[in-house]
User: What shape does this take?
Amino acid sequence: MSDKYSEAAGTFPRADRIIWLIFFIVAALPIMFPIGLPLDITEVTRDYYATIEDIPEAGVVLYSFDSGMGAFAEMGPADIGTITHLTSVMKENNVKVIFVTTAGPEGQVALNVILTQYVDMSGLVYGEDYLNLGLIPGYESTLAALAEDLHKIAPTDVEGTRLTDIPWIANVRGAEDYDIFVFSTATSPDPYPRQWAQYDKPILAVAQAATASWIRPYHEAGMITAYLPGQRGGAEYEVLLGAPGLGSSYMDAQSLTHVYAIVLILVVNIQWYLKRKGDET
Amino acid sequence: MSIFKKKEMIQLAFIIPLLFLLLTYYTGAMKGIRSDILSWGPLIVTFTYFLGLATVFKHNILKIQKKERDWQYLPLLFIGFFAVLISKYTSQPSYDWLINKLLLPMQIAMLGYVGIYFFTMYFRGARTRNWAATVVLGSAIFTMFGNAPIGPGIHPVFAQIFMWIKDVPNTAGMRGLLIGMGTGIILTVVRKVMGQERALISGEAENV
Assistant: This one.
């Protein structure tokens, strides 16, 4: 099979095409016809929810949105859930949110898609309830500078309004004035706790399931308060918010595709074992 | 390098981190200067964007001029760049269409493509050839079953094994990796401060 595969440069062998076709069917069917498998809520997701609920009256949230469009299917549900929850505390407790992107321009694109298409921002006024500082390139040095002195690094918001002209943010200077840090990243989570954990404020993280293991040591050390790992984290959060959405529908698809993967592994190994046994005899 | 000689650069790389470390981090002194220096970072990175843009344009225009392999696809780069740039500042609906109907689905498709290739890998490479491969495959099976709702739905033991894999060997491995990375960062800082790390002045690192 492998020889055929290498000979067939530019084309795909029939076996691959069948595998992909079955994958497509297995992934698409539960999205079109949801099964609604029950989902256990993990402790870390409950902590994440409780941390947002505990933001004090008129508290300030610094949200570094650094995940891009490529990771939207994986991280979108968790980001949408987080911002949806933040909007509710913005309305109920007069909490203010400062959005910013530090890692690359894509974060702003994904953030705007979420704010305009997936989260109900009605009743909230830009500039009064939340603010977007846009892209401030620099990643880790920007994260450090945001915690040090916000006004030095971002004299204006994304629309060009001077921060000194916005009453509630005029007195927000740095880490001591934020009540909570939130970040969403599709790559390395290291810079965030490295720059922010020293200020002893809660830090929430949205990450890919693949990078959750990267975040876990920081979480166990108390440097990151809680995190949502990928689609699974997003789906759990939707259950807690009582608003099933993208994450919940993806979970059924994930269940079936995982079963399909396991079946493939088992079938291939049984076939390989039988072949090896046949060769030996 | 015209104003500062290599020697001065090494001295600056020695003094500034040392001041940050000894004064600002531990005592809070010179905080204003520190935040000033930190705010230079984004400015420098912004200029690197322009540098990157100029390099991409130069490199690809040359490739088109020389009609190098697959040069026919390169104009798409320029069309895409100018379409996004112009639409962003002249027509918001056009920009939204480019983002929502082209960029978003294409990038999700690219990431999804990786997932699809995993299934080919399961079919071709996931064989229990030795005990190490068996452990990896066993972990993969329990992780997949434990992470998706169907696993605990079949039997709670899948979730328990998944949690153990996640909390014990996986976290221990990552913790070890992070400690190694942290030690590496400290060593790099020490080498920079001692003038041994000269990559920042286009020199070669000296062996200590």
Summary: The mean pLDDT of chain B is 83.
